[in-house]
Amino acid sequence: MANVFKKAANYLGLVDDEEDTQPVVAAEAPHRGVRSVNQSPRPTFTPVPAPSFTPMQEPLPIMDQIFTIHPRFYNEARTVGERYRMSQPVLMNLSDMEESERKRLVDFASGLVFGLHGSIERVTSKVFLLTPENVRVSTENKTAAAEASFFNQS
Q1: Handedness of CA 11, 17, 23, 28 (dihedral sign)
Q2: pLDDT for 50-70, tens place per residue?
Q3: Are 67 and 83 in contact (CB under 8 A)?
Q4: How far lies 113's CA from each of 49, 70, 140, in Å?
Q5: C-alpha separations of 74 from 45, 79, 98, 125 in Å
Q6: What's the pLDDT at 140?
C-alpha cells in the first residue's frame, strides 16, 4: 500500500524518483530489462516570475484643431462622443436645437466629460466647449476682457 502512495507522489512530482537514479536489476523487472540512469531524465520545473505591469505611454495627439458641431437633433450626440473620446476638443453650438433636446445633449456631454476626466465650459448661453483631460483652457483673459468691456457698467 505504501508503494502505491509512493508511486502517486512520484507521479505528481512531490518526491524524487528513486527508480530513475538507480539502475533496475533484470531480476526485479524481467520483462523490462535493464534501465540506464540517463535514459529518461525528468524535466525540471522552474517557476517564471510574473512580468511586472508597466502601462504603455501613448503619445498625446497634437491639438491643432477644435471640432465644431451645430447639431439639430439629439442623434448627433454620438458624433460628439466619438470626437471627444479621440481626445479632441469639441465646440457645440446648440442654437439650432429645441429646448428639450438641448438639455438632453448638455446632460450627455456633462456625463461624457465626467467619465473621461475632462471639463465642460459654457461659452455663451447655447455654446459649450468640451475639453479632454490633457487640454487646459485659460480663463484669465476672459475675466480681463469682461472687466474692460464697453458694456460692463459695473
Answers
A1: negative
A2: 666 555 555 555 666 888 899
A3: yes
A4: 39, 19, 22
A5: 60, 10, 10, 18
A6: 67
Query: Phi, psi (5° rounding) for residue 29?
Result: -135, 80
Q: What is the pLDDT of residue 18?
A: 55
Grid cell 466629460 — which residue?
113
Quote the distance between the C-alpha of residue 32 and its chain's center.
58
Where are the chain's structural domains? 1-42, 67-135
| DSSP track, 53-115 | P----PPPPP----EEE--SSGGGHHHHHHHHHTT--EEEE-TTS-HHHHHHHHHHHHHHHHH
The CA-based diameter of the chain, rounded to the nearest angstrom, is 115
Report the alpha-carbon distance of residue 86 to residue 130 in Å, rounded. 12
**Could you tell me which of 154, 119, 125 has the C-alpha nearest to residue 139?**
119
CATH superfamily of 67-135: SepF-like protein (3.30.110.150)
